[in-house]
Specification:
GTP Cyclohydrolase I, domain 2, alpha+beta, 4-stranded antiparallel sheet, globular, 2 helices, about 20% helix
Length: about 130
Amino acid sequence: MPSQPSKTLETFDNPRPESDYSIRIRVPEFTCLCPKTGQPDFAELTLDYVPDQLCVELKSLKLYIWSFRDTGAFHEAVTNEILADLVAATEPRFMRLRAEFNVRGGIYTTVIAEHRQPGWQPPAPVTLP
């Protein structure tokens, strides 16, 4: 196999660090294991962030997400772990991770975790007619 799962998140320099702009990354095939039964859990992850000096490199993100495939984790724990690792790697102005887990035992779970850089204020939204 040419590539393997990895816990290493690579970054690159933000090409426009002077600007507040958002990046949205959708990961429709996240998989981990239920820590109680060992059965697979599936989720769609949506990452929204406003970068500061660094952006996450997508291939490393793909390999990082893959590294959870054989890991037992509660939904709340794995969502917050991923957010914490991404924040540590990129030190963004703002980051939100939304994890929408497929049904397990007749229950759907969505976990939303956020990080905001101290002192950062989002720009005022523009409302067009």
